[in-house]
Amino acid sequence: MIQDRLDKIEEMLKQSEAVKESDKNELLNLLTTLRTEISELSQTHHEQAESIAGFAELSAHEATRCEKSPKLFNLSIEGLTSSVQDFEISHPRLVAIVNSFCTMLANSGI
Asked: In the chain, where does DSSP find H-type helix?
């Protein structure tokens, strides 16, 4: 299910007309790294990995909508950021990737 969510994010980004091509490429690169990190996390913390993937999907959805809602986008980013907070010490790379992903989405026009 985690991989399905990540596949949906990839497809949303690829098809989005609301995100600039240069941003799409950077987001897709971050997503590739996020896949690896979430896959590793899911081995020991499956439910938390599901939450991260779910909030990432929701955040990508809100960022790629044609008619954007800043309130919904901010809530989705807040959820994604909160979902990785407990992993700052044990998985610092995951947290850095999610932070970069959130920043890129936020800078894509919301």
From this structure: 2-15, 21-42, 46-64, 70-84, 92-106
pLDDT score of 109: 60
Q: How far apart are CA 9 and CA 27, in angstroms?
A: 10
Q: What tokens does 45 get?
A: 């913390």
Torsion 10-14-15-16 (CA) sign: positive
The first and second tokens of residue 57, run together, are 């999907």
The whole-angstrom separation of Cα 85 and Cα 108 is 23
CB 24 within 8 Å of CB 64: no
pLDDT, residue 107, reads 85
| Total residues found in the chain within this entry | 110
The 3-state DSSP class for residue 18 equals coil
Please provide the average confidence, as pLDDT, over all residues in the chain: 91
User: What interhelical angle do 46-64 and 92-106 show, nearest 10?
Assistant: 10
The CA distance from 5 to 50, in Å, is 9
Predicted local distance difference test score (pLDDT) of residue 84: 93
